[in-house]
Backbone:
């Protein structure tokens, strides 16, 4: 049971907190009914994500056994069998899809699309140069779309763009890490180079901060929130990007971006302060 829990990677569920973004910026964060429904969707999405992790480990079993880090995963190290992984994946995926359709047919289609796209990604698109990273952006888009549907909030195009850019930022940093640890991935060796990835990361980093800055200065956003002070959240975005780049470059967190947040208290504090300031400005009109 211990290794099965490790295999479904519950710590990775932190990525699904993107589902709550529409609530925060849609001024529904303190709506109890909407918050509860969104939390249920968060749980269902987390089960779907764990299904993907298990299927991915099954497909990549042989290559994971040769990887310096992934060889320690429960399936690759032999702590659990392929049969166990298949059974748990079937149960988790079935529960996620079934209950999501019961909750809201739109959420059901989103989670089903998430599972289907991940399967296509693992089988085909994972080896498609650049497109492989764009798929990561699509996964994050489905998360915020699930939150948007659940809370009945139409997100600003700026926030959608920032989310997609952030996903690309994380994805290319992961490719940089793969290159650094001499991953056996054919794509990493044959297409990506450190110089190319660094240039892409520089472009995306600038795009993220500029898109977010333009969002805070958009007149429609100012009118919606009734304040111009949302601009004061920009420094936290800058710091988060710069700090993550430091953690990738100096501490090797690029292979698993979730660890950058879970193991670095400065990233945690920065995220907390960003949320607090957003709430103070959007809800309290500070």
Residues:
């Amino acid at each position: 049971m211990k290794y099965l829990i490790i295999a479904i990677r519950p710590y990775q569920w932190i990525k699904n907190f993107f589902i709550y973004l529409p609530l925060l910026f849609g001024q529904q964060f303190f709506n109890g009914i909407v918050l509860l429904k969104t939390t249920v969707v968060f749980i269902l999405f987390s089960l779907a994500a764990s299904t993907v992790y298990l299927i991915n480990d099954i497909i990549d079993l042989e290559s994971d056994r040769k990887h310096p880090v992934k060889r320690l995963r429960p399936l690759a190290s032999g702590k659990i069998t392929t049969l166990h992984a298949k059974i748990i994946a079937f149960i988790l995926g079935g529960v996620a899809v079934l209950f999501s359709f019961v909750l809201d047919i739109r959420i059901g289609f989103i989670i089903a699309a998430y599972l289907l796209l991940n399967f296509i990604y693992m089988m085909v698109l994972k080896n498609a140069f650049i497109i492989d990273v764009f798929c990561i952006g699509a996964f994050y888009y489905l998360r915020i779309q699930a939150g948007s549907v659940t809370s009945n909030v139409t997100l600003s195009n700026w926030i959608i763009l920032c989310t997609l850019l952030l996903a690309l930022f994380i994805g290319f940093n992961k490719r940089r890490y793969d290159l650094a640890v001499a991953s056996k991935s054919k794509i990493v060796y044959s297409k990506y180079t450190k110089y190319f990835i660094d240039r892409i990361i520089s472009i995306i980093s600038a795009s993220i901060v500029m898109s977010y800055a333009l969002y805070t200065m958009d007149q429609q956003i100012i009118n919606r929130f009734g304040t111009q002070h949302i601009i004061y959240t920009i420094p936290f975005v800058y710091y988060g990007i710069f700090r993550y780049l430091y953690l990738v470059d100096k501490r090797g967190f690029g292979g698993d971006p979730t660890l950058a947040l879970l193991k670095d208290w400065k990233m945690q504090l920065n995220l907390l302060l960003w949320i607090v300031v957003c709430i103070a400005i959007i809800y309290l009109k500070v």
